Amino acid sequence: MNLTALTNDELKKLAPQVFTETASDKVSDKYVHIPTFQIVEDMKALGWEPCDAKCVKARKGGADYKKHLVKFFNPELTITSDDDSMVPQILLTNGHDGSTGFRFQIGIFRFICENGMVVMDKDYGSFKMRHMGYTFDELKESITNAVSKLPNLVNKINSFQMKEMTDVEMKTFAEKAILARFGEERQVTGISLDELLAPERTLDEGSNLWVVFNRVQEKLTHGSFMHVNGKGKLRKARGIKNFQQDMELNEKLWELAEEYVAS
User: Fold this and answer.
1) Count of helices and strands (H, E) across the chain
2) Residue 261 has what DSSP assignment?
3) How many whole angstroms separate alpha carbon 261 and alpha carbon 263?
4) What's the start-to-end Cα distance of the chain, in Å?
5) Other beta carbons less than 10 A from residue 206's beta carbon
6) Torsion angle of alpha carbons 168, 172, 175, 177, nearest 10°?
7) Spatial separation of the C-alpha atoms in residues 202 and 50, rounded to whole Å
8) Percentage of residues of the chain with pLDDT beyond 90
């Protein structure tokens, strides 16, 4: 499977807010509107192509101004470790209601499971930009800096692969990951740790932190496990559809994994 660049029409279907030309009338007079599509074009000029997009569904109006996400990949950049093939991604979130500036985070797309994850650490190149004073040169400098830090990300993945986990550590990791998704206040029980930790494919077999992290992350985000809900009924968990919740969970899981290799 290869990532493919989205056409403008495909991008518009996934997140029409990318093409919103004006800001919400609720923003202040000092607000400077920079359409997300301008950033998309500037990213293309820097070699980064949009490959996915998502948006927040608005219940009552204002849909054109809601927060949205665009994922980019660079065809020239890949990460290969053993038989595992990945590409770094840059995740751009933006909104047109004055509540947020441009936020760029580093992600990883893993081909074997067609799954993406978000890296929770500014040391790997994540950065923010304000709408006011935005320039292409500033974006170029920030992207160049982010790319220069990709070796740090590769080193971190290597450290995950080198960390062998005991059965107790794996189950503790899974228990903490469940809390990261559902929180302590949710009445969700009956989740089998063995089911959550079971590999779906040969490449994910083993007990090192990288494969354990990927097994748990994939199932928690896709909803590939059973649980007992608050009414005492056994149900298959739903996959996470809201991109903000997905990113938040991914960040928490990455942070959790880092605890196991912290010096």
Assistant:
1) 8, 9
2) T
3) 6
4) 36
5) 15
6) -130
7) 30
8) 49
Angle formed by the axes of helices 209-222 and 243-259, nearest 10°: 160
Q: Which two tokens stand for residue 111?
A: 């081909």
Amino acid at 9: D
- The answer for residues whose C-beta is within 8 angstroms of residue 161's C-beta and 6 or more apart is 81, 82, 208, 209, 210, 211
Cα 244 to Cα 36, 85, 91, 118, 231, distances in angstroms: 17, 26, 12, 11, 27
Single pTM value for the model: 0.87
Q: Which two tokens stand for residue 144?
A: 């160049």
- Which tokens go with 159? 């450290």
User: What secondary structure does DSSP assign to 152-199, as a single string?
Assistant: HHHHHHHHHHH-B--HHHHHHHHHHHHHHHH-TTS--B---HHHHHS-
More confident site: 115 or 14: 14
Does residue 54 contact residue 243 with C-beta atoms inside 8 Å?
yes
Backbone angles phi, psi at 109, to 5 degrees: -110, 125
pLDDT in the model for residue 41: 97
Angle, alpha carbons 221-57-224 (nearest 5°): 15
In which residue are the tokens 């495909």 written? Answer: 10
